[in-house]
Amino acid sequence: MVVKVGDTIPNATVILSSNATEKNACAIPKKVSTADLFKGKVVLFAVPGCFTPTCHVSHLPSFVTHYEEFKKKGVDSVYCLSTNDIFVMDAWGKSSGADDKVKMVADGNGEFVNALGLNLDLTPQMMGATRAKRFALIAQDGVIQHLAVGDVDVSGAEAILAKL
C-alpha cells in the first residue's frame, strides 16, 4: 500500500553520516529513526541510485541549488534518500556539494521505502530488487502534506518549492 497525503510517516531506521562536512573522510554511520528525522517541516526526495544519470545530473543538484529557497519557505531539513549504503550516499553528497544543506539518507535495506510502498524492483537492470521510486514529499511533524511520485518535473526542487 502506498502512503498518501495525510498519512503519518511510517517508523523505520535509516542511516545518516555524522561527519558529512569532513571532505576527505569516510562516513561515520549514525542510525536515526524516521520519527526523529521528520520533526518540523521536512522535504525528502528519493532517487533510485546514487551517481545514476538523472539522479546525479538533475535531481540532487536541483535541491542543492535551491536550498536557500527551501529555508526561506520555512523548511527545517532537506533530505536525499536512496537504497544505497551510507558510504556511497556520503561520497555522493560530498562530490555534489550537498555539504550540510541536503542531508544524505541511506535506506540500505529498503526498510523505509518498503514501508512507504514506494519501492521499485530494478532486477532487470541489474540494480537490485529493492530500490526507491523517484519521489519527493513534504511533511510537517511526521504527517505527509504533499507527495509527488515521478520524474524530476514533479519531484525536483522547482516542483516541490511550488507546493510549499
> In terms of per-residue confidence, which ranges show pLDDT below 50 for 5 or more consecutive residues?
none
How many β strands by DSSP?
9
User: Topology as H/E string?
Assistant: EEHEHHEHEHEEEEHH
Instruction: Give the strand content.
Output: 25-35%
Q: What is the CA-atom radius of gyration, in angstroms?
A: 14 Å
Summed up, what is this model?
The protein has 164 residues and is α/β, with parallel strands linked by helices. It has one domain (13-19, 35-161): 3-Layer(aba) Sandwich (Glutaredoxin).
Question: How does this model look, in words?
Answer:
With 164 residues, the protein is α/β, with parallel strands linked by helices. The protein has one domain: Glutaredoxin, CATH 3.40.30.10. The protein is 29% helix and 27% strand. The chain contains seven helices and nine strands; from the N terminus they run ββαβααβαβαββββαα. The strands form three sheets. It has a five-stranded mixed sheet with strand order 5-4-3-8-9. A two-stranded antiparallel ribbon has the order 1-2. α4 links the parallel β4 and β5. The mean pLDDT is 92.
List keywords for this structure.
Glutaredoxin, 5-stranded mixed β-sheet, 7 helices, 9 strands, antioxidant, redox-active center, Thioredoxin-like_sf
Secondary-structure blueprint:
Blueprint lengths: L12 E5 L11 E5 H4 L3 E6 L6 H13 L1 H6 L4 E6 L3 H10 L6 E5 L4 H6 L2 E2 L10 E2 L2 E6 L2 E7 L2 H4 L1 H5 L3
